[in-house]
Amino acid sequence: MSVSRRTFLKGTVAGVAGLGVVPVFRHIALTQDKIPGDGPVRYVNSSCAICTNKCVFRGQVVNGVIRRLEPEPDFPKSRGMMCARGNAGATTPYDPDRLKFPLIRTGKRGEGKWKKVSWDEAFAYIAEKTNTLVKEEGGNRATIAFASSEGTYQEHYWNQFREVFGSPNSLRHPTLCLSSNIRGFQSVFGTYPNADVANSRYIILAGADRAEAFMTPDTIDMFNKSMPGRKLIYLDPRFTKTAAKADKWFPIKPGTDMAFALAMLNVIIGENLYDKAFVREHCTGFEELAAHVTQYTPEWAQGETGIEASEIRTVAREFAQTPGAVFYPGRRSSWLRDDVQTRRAIAMVNAVTGSFDRPGGLIPNISIPMKGYFYEPAWYSNPRPRLEEEDVMFLNPRDGSWIAWRDRAIKGDPYRIRGMFINKQNVIDSVPDRNKTFELFDKLDLIVTIDTMMSDTAWYSDVVLPESNYLERFDPPYGLGGIEPVIVLRQPLIAPMYDTRPCFDIVKGLAAHFEDEDGDTLDTYFSGTVEEHAEMFVSGLPGAMEMLREKGFYTDGRSAVMGEYRSGKKTVATPSKKIELYSEDFAGRGLDPMPVYRRPEEPGKGQFRFLVGRHAIHTHSMTAAFPELNWHMPENSLWINAAKAREMGIRSGDLVVAQNRSGAEVRIKAQVTEGIRPDCVYFAHGFGSLSQGKPLVYGKGATQAAILESHFEPVSGNACMHETFVEIRKA
Amino acid sequence: MANEKKKRWVMVIDPSRCIDCKACDVACKRENSLVLEGRDSYRNWISSKGIEGTYPRLKQKFEPSQCQHCSNTPCEHVCPTRATYKTRDGIVRVDYKRCILCKTCITACPYDARFEQHQFKAIDKCTFCEHRIYEGKLPACVDTCPTKVRVFGDLNDPQSEVSKLLAARHWRVLKPEVGTRPNLYYIA
Amino acid sequence: MNHTAFKERIVFTPGGKLWGVLAGFLLILGLVGLFNYLIHGVEVYNVHRQVPWGIQISTYVFFVVSSTGLCLVSSLGHVFGIKSFEVIGKRAIAMAIFTILAGFAVIATEIGHPLRMLVYNIISPNLHAAIWWMGTLYGIYLVCILIEFWFMMRGDHRFAGYLGLAGFIAGVAAHSNLGAVFGFLDARPWWHGPFLPIYFILSAAVTGCAIVLLLFAHRYYREKMPRNVEETMHAIGKLFCLLLGILIFFEIWKVLTSIYGAPPGKYEAMMALVAGPLSTSFWLFEVLLGMLIPFALILFTKARSFSINVLAAASAIVGIFFMRYNLVVAGQLVPMRPDVHRVGPDGLLSYFPSPTEIGIVLGGIGLCLLMYIAANLLFNLDDEEHPSEVESLQTNSCS
Ligand SMILES: Nc1nc2c(c(=O)[nH]1)N[C@H]1C(S)=C(S)[C@@H](COP(=O)(O)OP(=O)(O)OC[C@H]3O[C@@H](n4cnc5c(=O)[nH]c(N)nc54)[C@H](O)[C@@H]3O)O[C@H]1N2
Ligand SMILES: Nc1nc2c(c(=O)[nH]1)N[C@H]1C(S)=C(S)[C@@H](COP(=O)(O)OP(=O)(O)OC[C@H]3O[C@@H](n4cnc5c(=O)[nH]c(N)nc54)[C@H](O)[C@@H]3O)O[C@H]1N2
Ligand code: SF4
Ligand code: SF4
Ligand code: SF4
Ligand code: SF4
Ligand code: SF4
Ligand SMILES: [Mo]
Is 1.20.1630.10 the CATH number for C53-336+344-351? Predict the structure, then answer.
């Protein structure tokens, strides 16, 4: 890496800088000292790791330096695009602030004092501490918890490690994201389907900000105008970029989407606009639903949602009468306490109009079958259940329920949690109520974090293990279900630049320092290499590995065949094998068998509902310090309605304090805008970092997790991120 | 190339598709290895007046743009050393080594398309990704765009997508009154 | 004649030394600025993508306008043969050289590649580019007035006259081209058009008069002015006043045509001056100091009082410096894209020079003064056909 002359001079003779203002883009400049120059381009196809979409790109390598990640035009899922974040990923291996070698904390937690160690030292240190903790807990291996997020294609090794280690306490991202959505749709359709956006003529989006929250291929199919005359109806308390593109934007009162959906059902059923043949053949519980929704008139819904009854009526009629209309399922549904039922109501609007298994409607995902990853299980004589097993109706044992689990862990109920291993999850910023996370951390004697950057979580850990960057890594094939399923692969563009390792090597290395009950070291459970696993995964698909190597993805051209459910070739996976408008299962569990509207709590005087939501520039807490993305959005600010702000004497740029009901507060600049309801405020995720290892966002703006209150929804265990009320005052 | 038919490279932009995601900007910077030197180094941008109107009657528009590769080329006319020149196929380029950084061209450009880039010690701006297009590849801002706002091609070829688009759709150019005859077209 | 004695009178007096120290101090400021620029690059300037031309450009314009003005005024004598103006010849031409050199020095710190310019201006000229012509013609102009000065010093008035004519032509051509550098920019309606080339020549003449008045005020600060010089100064004062009057007339029409009917681009730029971010610089400096005060002063005294003339000239020079700044900056404040991040709530861009830019500008002024002081040491800049020393011998003994 050549240090450019300017940087060098700047470093040596900075003394006279006082005469003129020198904007110091130190990190940006350093990252970009690695300039590939001109020369022949070597292309390596691989798969993006900057968000959940996993777009496949053609990586340009020039003179051994990554120049650009350009879209692979043939990759069906992303329709040949790379978003700003995916493009910005190209410089991540060269980020001067990335993690470069294992670190063990030497100062206090969060003080930022580290000792650089070898991998073996790190492993030995972790093992020694862990074994002591387990011993202290009477051999309870569940005392060590494991957190992780998807996206590395190596998470299965992490799960394997947890399982052979013997802990049930796995905490994954779904209960911060879409658990309630999955549960809601599954209870109606037996699956969480995709919307066939490309062929849809009429789309209702309730809080699914597709223009900013990228989901492939939906984002692309929604806005590329390939469907002339398509109508887009958008419900969101904020005027997002999706609102800018929508035919209609309704600034719905937050948490009242169920009322909107129920009123639609009221109109569609009441006016006989539903798909009678479809309902007769494929649904159960229609009579009950019809009777149930008579109470939910548009006039009633107007009072709840703030959307005019006539508008609701029009939307309901247009929706029912446009072939290929769909009420989009949405993605992140960690909103309110009744989220599962809200999603059920939305699913039912689709069901009664037959917007299922037909072009433009909801389509159950299909996937390309791959061989599974098998490993010897380890057996322990006295396994303990997950901490929060009792607290959630439908608990996915691998995902857990973050908030419920944390409440238990803080209390040590029914047993203590003494250590936590975290991989690719920025727990401190991603789990609502940071203060509670700190409370949890205070109870832990060991925190180990695997990351690529010094996230806030890594910053507060005892041991930080650097995973190799996704552009330096070989990750085994990963199947993406969908209407057009694919398998994707990650292969290195460059060799690892520092002393980093991929997840498999990390867990295998760690495993060698642990023993099972029979005294065998745990690494005996890990066999083969990632490459060998990769070959094995796709061994049933002739030519797949070659295509993966060449193109970065594999498809045999299959796509979901429409009409198979309608024709009876396939049946939906509900208990009744029908689309359930009335759920016996729910009734049996004491839940409402049909969605019953309960008015959400309203913010009191002087309070605002705090909303979270995506924007196109950043991914969660992960990219705010990527130089190019930071350039576009260097700080976040609090959106507040213009009229309201005028009332309160707040102007754009003023520093304000947002304080939630538990007293936690953040300071952040105000951004006065017409584009938000007067009873809500919002700011973006990813800023206000505590970690000085991310200097571009350290202390810049505020983090949502600091003021998000700690609530969860007991059916799916999903967090409720919009149950937070804040008071705003000028700082 | 000499006896090949001249090309007329143009870009047709459909602003109604743009979701303001900035992929075009980041792609351009990476493709052209632009070092971020501050707030001024960018070759393309999305214009917007922000959210217009009063809650709840609001709208917002986005208009992507970059150097217009003007047929009547003010930046070229004023350049003392011919550092700014037009290629035979109409692409307006800057020869970095001839640029004296007098910045006259910046003041001459009605579109704010030019800027001083220290990395090159010269004026920089959009090149239509000339290094790609003769290899049959699309400019970076074109290929990366999620909603395919930009269409690129040869207007001298009646079969090209740009020719067909311009024949079929109403279009406009930016600042027609300054007489630059831009080669960026906007679907109206 | 006693040139050494003269030097002692004008250079080595406490007042003279003060000038030297001041000029030296300004030059040091400039060198610090230059050093800062060389280390940190243009980051230490406040010019930016939307306002790429700042105070260095306007100072350059100020200097070359001064130079052209001096050349114009002096040519009245030895080119156009108006005898009484010959007394100012050498001094004016010397200052014309120093001002343009100072101008070149300042712009060399602003243009990214001044040396590259010398090469590519020759091997890769663009004959369509006003700035090429400007550069080339100013080069020729400088050569002409240098040789002219040389002939003058040798007392060869015939050749000095020819060179003076050449210099005059080159100067007028170069200068109107400088106007065209701005005037050819269709993108900038406020600059665009034939107004600027003409206006530049006119304001050059005004500046020339003012500087001549100042130079002679300095020259005869400690001694009585010879009669013939006094008469010339009177004439220059009147000319100065007349030209100022015309300039005011021009300016009024510029303001009116820019505002009447609110022509897009022009109107906003003009409003930036009359009621916007540049209004102090415009009303106080450009209009009051630069034009109205000097005009009124001379008008009411009928140019008879030399000290009032000098006061008017000093006021005008300060004002004209700001006039150049206003011209260069206001033309750029109207954004080409109204939504760039630098556009403020008034819809305009902003620019204010950085300490480094100001330092370099002051350094340019210091350089100019130092060169003039040095010239007074090295050469006899008085008109030898009318040796003023003879008449002022009585004060000689004082020094
Ligand atoms: N406040 C707030 N919290 C939220 C949300 C919100 O909007 N606001 N959204 C929720 C949703 S929907 C989701 S899906 C979750 C996501 O939450 P997380 O899964 O925590 O996602 P990120 O915040 O992106 O953090 C990912 C971390 O992984 C690291 N990382 C990146 N690449 C690699 C790699 O290759 N290997 C390893 N080991 N680490 C890597 C990053 O540096 C970063 O620290 O957040 C949820 N929590
Ligand atoms: N650029 C980018 N794209 C991403 C991600 C990213 O980080 N960055 N993350 C990915 C992930 S993991 C996920 S889960 C998805 C999430 O994608 P989405 O599901 O679209 O989620 P959000 O953007 O978090 O929230 C959507 C909108 O809901 C609005 N909203 C809040 N409360 C209510 C309400 O009560 N009713 C209605 N109707 N609207 C409401 C918010 O204002 C917000 O604009 O995005 C994915 N895509
Ligand atoms: S949407 Fe963007 S960040 Fe996400 S995988 Fe695709 S390119 Fe990467
Ligand atoms: S990439 Fe396309 S959609 Fe995104 S900002 Fe650029 S032009 Fe608009
Ligand atoms: S847009 Fe500007 S830079 Fe591009 S060709 Fe036209 S005048 Fe030149
Ligand atoms: S700055 Fe460079 S490209 Fe622009 S006019 Fe001057 S020499 Fe030409
Ligand atoms: S054509 Fe190429 S150089 Fe021009 S804006 Fe697009 S990506 Fe950048
Ligand atoms: Mo998510």
Answer: yes
